[in-house]
Write a structure and sequence with these properties.
alpha+beta, single chain
């Protein structure tokens, strides 16, 4: 599923990421990463979820607009729960 970012992400080479693909299928490794980060707090779990959902690095997600982080998290959550969005 494509998501158009509210605030594009500026890359080091000067290009911008304007959309991200939120995957609809997750692996056991994704669940482990997301689950283990949850012990640190809800914020870390959300960052891990968005990183796993988009393939972006944690450092990129940490610098994303908060509204984009929350929106991508909301899109991804139903797929982890086995539901549909």
């Amino acid at each position: 599923m494509e998501y158009k970012l509210i605030t594009p992400i500026a890359k080091a080479d000067g290009t911008k990421i304007e959309t991200v693909t939120v995957k609809e299928s997750y692996t056991g490794q994704d669940l482990k990463i997301i689950g283990n980060s949850g012990s640190k707090g809800d914020g870390d779990a959300l960052i891990a979820l968005v990183a796993c959902a988009t393939g972006l690095s944690t450092s990129v997600v940490l610098n994303m607009n908060a509204r984009d982080v929350r929106a991508v998290g909301e899109i991804a959550r139903p797929f982890l729960a086995g539901g549909e969005s």
